[in-house]
């Protein structure tokens, strides 16, 4: 063979040899931990932090942050007595619901203690704003099968509505100070919305939908996860409940 041609063939074969070595050594492996590897520790979900704040402008804001900032801050409910030292737990839950125009139709429903009935679930108190004072969570189950979740906070002796959401077969969980609301989808999948206190209200931190895919060759249904994070950190007006 011509020496010049043999030299060119050797040069062309070299990159393929390197790729073969990398493939065999597992450099491109994405299937998780290997034998003997320790699992990573769970850490707090990171939030965006600008490297050059002076150059950040609005580009550092998460999608939807500007729209959330334009929303008016929650207004205190009228017609309620001043919240005392006992906090929201010392208040009349039905009176709070009657003072809230959106939740007023739920105020006179019977209290229920198990699923499958229409009425108000037992109220729950948990700190969602980080001020060591528990918020009030009220859920109602309706005859149509829909569920309503309302959350209230207290600031300066006044009661503020900070979340109102509804859906069918709501499952409500807490993740640290956040709320995770799950609802089943019509196709057998699930939607999970995570709400986080942003200084004014419980705003959407993430909205993840799991869509049911067609059967794979083995006949096993699989779920396709489509996350759409929408963290919102709007500024806190001086007259809002964010002054905790």
TrEMBL record:
The keyword Lipid metabolism does not apply. Keywords: Signal. The keyword Signal applies. It comes from the Bacteria. Residues 55-83, 208-244 are annotated as: Disordered. Residues 228-238 have a biased composition (Pro residues). Residues 1-20 form the signal peptide. This is Lipoprotein. It comes from Streptomyces formicae.
